[in-house]
Design brief:
mainly alpha, about 45% helix, globular, 3 helices
């Protein structure tokens, strides 16, 4: 995610979608938990950084903190499972 001079995040680019259209996989690196490396938008929570990239549909990440990466991926999967189940209950999609 691009950052401005104030360390706030700028809008996401189309890089991931463009790479996928070209048949490429995207694995950003290197995720770190230390506050020095986190954008201000993440409010010192490294999991938020991972979640944002997972929402952009990256294919994987390189991380100096494997446990944080795993926890974030589990949270991401659970969030989407919950959304899908809620949509199914409302008749918006068929449950698989």
């Amino acid at each position: 995610m691009p950052e401005g001079p104030d360390h706030r995040l700028l809008p996401a680019t189309g890089l991931v979608a463009d790479a996928h259209r070209a048949g490429l996989r995207v694995h950003p690196y290197t995720f770190r938990d230390e506050p020095t490396f986190l954008a201000a938008d993440y409010k010192l929570d490294p999991i938020q950084a991972y979640l944002q990239f997972f929402e952009l549909e990256v294919d994987g990440v390189f991380s100096d903190n494997a446990i944080s990466a795993l926890r974030a991926r589990q949270a991401f999967v659970q969030r989407h499972r919950t959304r899908r189940q809620a949509a199914a209950r409302q008749g918006m999609i068929r449950s698989v």
